Amino acid sequence: MTKYAHALRIGGVALLALGLFGASCKKKIDPSEATPAGSGAAVDDNKKESIQNIGSDTMVNLAQAWAEEYSKVAPNVSVEVSGGGSGVGIAALINGTASVANASRRLEPEETEKAKKQSGKEPKEFMVGYDGLAIYVNKQNPIEEISLEDLAEIYREGGKFNKWSDLGVKGIPGAKSDEIIRISRQNNSGTYQYFREAVVGKKNDYKAGSLDMNGSKEVVELVAKTAGAIGYSGLGYATPDVKIVKVAKKKGEPAIVPSIATVLDKTYPISRPLFMYTPGEPDRAVHKYLEWIMSDAGQKIVEKTGYVPLSKK
Amino acid sequence: MFTTTPLIRKKQRNELIAKCVFGGMALAMIVPLIVIVTYLVVRAAPLLSWEFLTTNPSGGMRHGGIWSALLGTVYLVTVSLLIAAPVGVLAAVYLNEYARESLFTRIINLAVVNLAGVPSIVHALFGLGAFVLFAGIGRSILAASLTLAIMTLPVIVASTKEALAAVPVSFREACWNVGATRWQTIRGIVLPNSISGILTGVILQVSRTAGETAPIMFTGAVFFKKIEEGDPFAYSIWDQCMALSMHLFTITTQVTEAPKALPYATAVVLLGAVLSVNASAIALRSYLRSRKKW
Amino acid sequence: MKQEVATLGSAARSRTSEAPAQIAARRRRVEAVSERVLEWLIRLCGVSAILFVFGIFFFVFREGVGLLFGDFSLRKFLFSTEWYPTSHSNVRYGVLALLAGTASVTVTAMLIAVPFGLGAAIFVSEFCGKRTKESLKVVIELLAAIPSVVWGFIGISVMNPLIQDVFHVPVGLNVLNGALLLALMSVPIMVSIGEDALKAVPDSFREAATALGATRWQVVYKVLVPAAKNGLLAAVLLGVGRAVGETMAVLMATGHAVNIPHSVFDPVRTLTATIAAELGEASVGSPHYQVLFLVGILLFSITFVVNLSADLIVKGVRKG
């Protein structure tokens, strides 16, 4: 091969590589492209459809229970569930890779803007249930109740409580030290965001050094195994191996146990609505699915999995 | 034999100590492996059965089996190897047989070696940006397999090159001397003689592909998806899928109140599949080596 | 060979009909064309493999490097321990704690893995019989085949309570847990490459030493290790590269806490785990997304340097 051909080859490779380089510009994905069955005009009820459901870890077990039950109601519709955190679901909504995003927190205004910019449509919000955020401690821990201010002092950056004795808890049997071991979630989690908003303070940040778990279940499991731990997670993840602490809105006010009743009548101070978002108006298949979720059949599953159903009108 | 002097006895004793110490170190790796695998199998035993492999997860993934995840992993491994193996082998053939030694090829070699060391999460980044978003494939088995293929490509290229380089140059020279073209040489002599190394290199990537979670998490693996039980063609290449590695991760971190044996059983199935493929690769390699005529 | 066939053909041609010659000529043409096609196919594969190799480098650099040209303080990025990418009031991108996490887990893992890995390599290469050698090598290869998510699961379910009980510490998801897993994962690489390095030392060295009256142990530490030290070093470096780049196992087993560890019993977060945990959430093109790619570039550079040194050292061993 001559030098000329050799140079041509190198040039060709470089050109192709450059093409790949330059072409890694983000391509606007039309949501109807990414979800092949997502485009409208699906008049045939028996056509095989698939719904991409991505988002909140708090809701992932609920979403999976819905998907499993719905496959018996509408066998031609396949609901594919992924977790990753509310942030992942919303990012997928913006990127156009999800038909429905689950979120355990409301969409931020910047995210709505971004979604509008990428797809031209405004995301539509559907409230599908409630979740009480429970405070878990180890079964050996004698503490019974805690106020929101104390919780803030434990978790907030600059907060003053670092040891259990600061809270007046003398000696947890089985704990190797007096230190409060904070268990939290990673920052893609809606639970993390909500807890920051409701307890730590939106303008504040978490104290560094907390163990940030991947999923709601891991928080509860770790608390169960660690005597000096405290953690927050959805009420639906409670197991018999941990203790739920009663929460008072302000010091001196009565502390409330989280339950379906106290979440619905808003006496339990840290509870939040659960949302599902669609990019713009949902198409027929997705609309029917959301309707089913908000109906009695879907809400019964909400209750069965430990969440709080929408109050009956 | 000479009588053993104190010096000789001391040397022999040191020798024995050294042998024991090093043997102990080697043992220290094997023992944890055996203990861990046994512990996993014992904890998984209540759930392992044929039904476990062929039924779908049910009851919020707490009951039933792992059929959809198992099938998904099979699809991912097959498709990614179907892409990576031919491209990788041919690329190695190109690098070893056709390309002349130059700065260009040295850079390529360097790049290939380094790519083999890239953390799997960077592959996930690339797969998400290039295949899911830019190429518009969307989250699917195809995108995930392409990502996995890119991950295993450099290792296949490197191991194939090793296998090709092991064939003595004299073989090739003999072919050229009777007038064969380069391709005829490769097809007739080089490839058949290096096939054992190539095959084992490819097969060893099966276990790596089956076990990786990060690259498929963002490109095509889902938490839950319902498919027909017992139907080996239940997935299409444009679908998303469940996968054993992803399933183990989600059951460990997200599914509450699962029977204690469930994550162990999933781990054991994954481990068993991976280890048996590797074991057959090793057996294949010894068989082919024993048949080598040189 | 082809020329002879051609002359034979032409000799036969004059005696028989035209057909065989035409067939032979056609076959030659087809062969020539298919040969060229095959060659181009092979070149295409080679080029596309190379393309993807460079593609990843370009892609990762492109996504992350943009941040460096804005009002982004590289010093703060590298030297601050405050990692708050999703803060509403005070966004901070300091990776020092993450670097410390990666470093502490890797260093601890190497402290465990190097003696055992090299010791096992020496044992396999010098001290054991052929049968034991084969079976040991098989076991070590099987150890290498265990997927990282299974290791992570072992870390959570087996090592966590074990560490809590044996060492009486409050939390079992920490540096030690991750380090033990990484050690078990990188030992097979060290053993196989270390064994290669020891095998590469010419037998004449061993024979000379034994002829002078050395025992096997003396041969090892006086002759072989110094002779093979380049290869052994390369083996260690490759193990380090594996440990630094590991994602799933450390994601599940190190406790994922952003702080600089004061002991091996503190939970930490590594660079790889941070990317894995936060990538899905960052919307494409946002500063958080770019910072994660910057972290990816950082990771890339570390593994590049490590792999490059290992590669150069090994090349030295092969030649000499």
Give the biggest sheet of chain A.
10 strands, mixed
Helix fraction bin of chain A: 25-40%
Class derived from helix and strand content of chain A: alpha/beta
Characterize the largest beta sheet of chain B: strand count, sense, and whether it forms a barrel.
Answer: 2 strands, antiparallel
Which key phrases capture this entry?
heterotrimer, A: 313 residues, alpha/beta, 37% helix, C: mainly alpha, MetI-like fold, 2 domains, two-stranded antiparallel ribbon, 12 helices, 77% helix
What does this structure look like?
The complex is a heterotrimer of chains A (about 325), B (about 290) and C (about 325). Chain A has 11 helices and 10 strands. By secondary structure, chain A is α/β, with parallel strands linked by helices. In chain A, strands 1, 2, 3, 4, 5, 6, 7, 8, 9 and 10 form a 10-stranded mixed beta sheet that branches. The longest helix of chain A is centred in the first third of the chain and has 21 residues, at about 5-25. Chain A is elongated. Mean pLDDT of chain A is about 80; it is low at about 1-5 and about 15-45. In chain B, α6 (about 140-165) crosses α8 and α7 (about 170-175) runs antiparallel to α8. Chain B has about 290 residues and is mainly alpha-helical. The longest helix of chain B has about 40 residues, at about 5-45. Chain B has 2 domains: about 1-45; about 50-290, MetI-like fold. Chain C has 2 domains: about 1-65; about 80-320, MetI-like (MetI-like fold, Orthogonal Bundle). Chain C is about 75% helix and about 0% strand. Chain C is built from 12 helices and 2 strands, in the order αααββααααααααα. Chain C has a two-stranded antiparallel sheet with strand order 1-2. The chains are: A alpha/beta (about 325), B mainly alpha (about 290), C mainly alpha (about 325). Chains in contact: A-B, A-C, B-C. Chains B and C meet through α1, α3, α4, α5 and α6 of B and α2, α4, α5, α6 and α7 of C.
Task: Give a concise summary.
The complex is a heterotrimer of chains A (313), B (294) and C (320). Chain B is built from eleven helices and two strands.
Blueprint of the fold:
The complex is a heterotrimer of chains A (313), B (294) and C (320).
Chain A: H1 3-23, H2 31-34, E1 49-55, H3 60-73, E2 77-84, H4 86-95, E3 100-103, H5 109-119, E4 124-138, E5 145-147, H6 148-155, E6 181-185, H7 190-201, E7 211-213, H8 216-225, E8 229-234, E9 242-248, H9 260-264, E10 271-278, H10 284-294, H11 296-304
Parallel strand pairs in A: 1-2, 1-3, 5-9, 6-7, 6-8
Antiparallel strand pairs in A: 3-10, 4-8, 4-9, 4-10
Helix pairs in contact in A: 4-5
Chain B: H1 6-44, H2 50-54, E1 57-58, E2 63-64, H3 67-98, H4 103-116, H5 120-134, H6 141-165, H7 169-177, H8 182-211, H9 214-217, H10 244-253, H11 261-291
Antiparallel strand pairs in B: 1-2
Chain C: H1 2-15, H2 19-65, H3 74-79, E1 83-84, E2 92-93, H4 96-127, H5 130-145, H6 148-167, H7 175-200, H8 203-211, H9 216-245, H10 248-253, H11 271-278, H12 287-319
Antiparallel strand pairs in C: 1-2
